[in-house]
Please model this.
Amino acid sequence: MSDVSHEQIYNRLLAVELKVDEIDKNTKGLVEAINAANGAVKVLNWIASIAQPVLWIGGLIVAAGAVWQTWIKK
Model:
C-alpha cells in the first residue's frame, strides 16, 4: 500500500467537494424546471378532475336537447 499523507487526502477531498459544488450549481436549474413541471401536472390534474363532471353534465344537456328536438317538439 502506498503511503498517502493526510494532507494529500484532504486536498483530494477539497477537489471532490469543488466538483460536487459545480455539479450542484449546474443542475439547480434542471431541478427547478422539474419541480415546476411537477406543479403544472398537479394543476392540470385538478383541471381534469373538474372538467370530467362538467363534460358529463354538458353531454346530458345536449342529449336532452336532442331528444327534445327530435321527439317532443314535433
